[in-house]
């Protein structure tokens, strides 16, 4: 494990050398980082990490994005996620897998009251409709590993929430 300074990511190029697969789950919130900080972390850092990984020999990049990602969205969150998807695809990996999970169900150390309320509600909905509006982070992690072990055909694969659930249970 290598600890890097994302503000000086280029200085850590050696940490990105010699890996066949790259996994990226990097992200923050607008509330935590502000609009500019959110864009810097969720788009710029991710795109730069992808470029360094490719330059270091990475063949397959697995990116956790978001349901509804769209570079033309009027909503900052979805627009940035769509932009970073496009940037990562443009890097030119042999395989690029993009996962678009819905609301992530997880326990956080930091307090996010509204997210906690949403998770409680969506957790209850998930009992009736398991793949509709949420996904446990463990399921996303298993799906990401499965993508790396069996990249499949094609240069780019986009997995929506239902497919993330299926792959994460396999």
Automatic annotation (TrEMBL):
The NAD(P)-binding domain, residue ranges: 4-151
Domain of life: Eukaryota
InterPro entries according to UniProt: NAD(P)-bd_dom, NAD(P)-bd_dom_sf
One Pfam entry name: NAD_binding_10
Cellular component terms per the entry's GO annotation: cytoplasm
Alphabetical list of CDD domains matching this protein: CC3_like_SDR_a (cd05250)
Subunit structure: Monomer. Forms homodimers during oxidative stress. Interacts (via N-terminus) with elongation factor EEF1A1 (via middle-region); the interaction is direct and competes with EEF1A1 binding to guanyl-nucleotide exchange factor EEF1B2, thereby inhibiting GDP for GTP exchange and reactivation of EEF1A1. Interacts with nuclear transport receptors XPO4, IPO5/RANBP5, IPO7, IPO9 and KPNB1 as well as GCN1L1/GCN1 and LRPPRC probably through their HEAT repeats. Binds NCOA5/CIA.
This protein's name: Protein HTATIP2
Organism: Prunella fulvescens
């Amino acid at each position: 494990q290598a600890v890097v300074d994302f503000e000086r990511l280029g200085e850590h190029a050696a940490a990105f050398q010699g890996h066949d697969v790259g996994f990226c789950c990097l992200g923050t919130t607008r509330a935590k980082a502000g609009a500019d900080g959110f864009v810097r972390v969720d788009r710029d850092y991710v795109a730069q990490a992808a470029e360094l990984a490719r330059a270091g020999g990475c063949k397959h990049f697995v990116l956790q994005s978001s349901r509804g990602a769209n570079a033309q969205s009027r909503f900052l969150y979805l627009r940035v996620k769509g932009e970073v998807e496009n940037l990562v695809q443009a890097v030119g990996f042999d395989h690029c897998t993009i996962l678009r999970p819905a609301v992530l169900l997880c326990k956080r150390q930091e307090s996010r009251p509204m997210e906690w309320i949403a998770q409680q509600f969506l957790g209850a909905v998930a009992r009736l409709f398991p793949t509709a509006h949420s996904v446990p982070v463990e399921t996303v992690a298993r799906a990401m590993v499965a993508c790396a072990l069996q990249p499949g055909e094609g240069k780019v694969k986009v997995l929506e929430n239902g497919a993330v659930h299926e792959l994460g249970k396999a």
